[in-house]
Fold TFIIB-type domain-containing protein.
Amino acid sequence: MENDSGFCSDCKAYTDVVLDHRSGDTICTECGLVLEERARSDPITDNGVLTVNVSNDNKKAVSCALPRLHKTLQNPDKSLHIAFESLGVMADRLALVATIRDHAKELYKKADNRKFCRGRNCDAIMAACLFLACQEKGFPRTLKEIATVAMVPQEKKSAE
């Protein structure tokens, strides 16, 4: 575990937080609120891009990306992570709460695990997951609203 500082929405202030590397959680030390769940932090990959820092006598360091090596590395959750980011962007555009966004991610992961996404328009499937999550959580949005945010024609979304 590692101590750091961050903004707690419950305390409404910057407080000390604990980073639990085992579970990936960021926890407020004042109130115990989990600020971020399952955060991925890997100092080797630097946000998914491998880098080499070259410095000369502790002067300005030069960072060089290693795209060829990065392409050879396989990450089984890479496409899922990208889809989750897209779902987050769509949910933010619709001003949806985190519980709906997370439920949409769960629905998408179920569809992905059953290999339902292969050969289909992933944006339409993500939009359908958002639509279902909104319906199930009692915060209905119209197909037109979600299709606009997902940049998917409404006919395509309703067909999926």
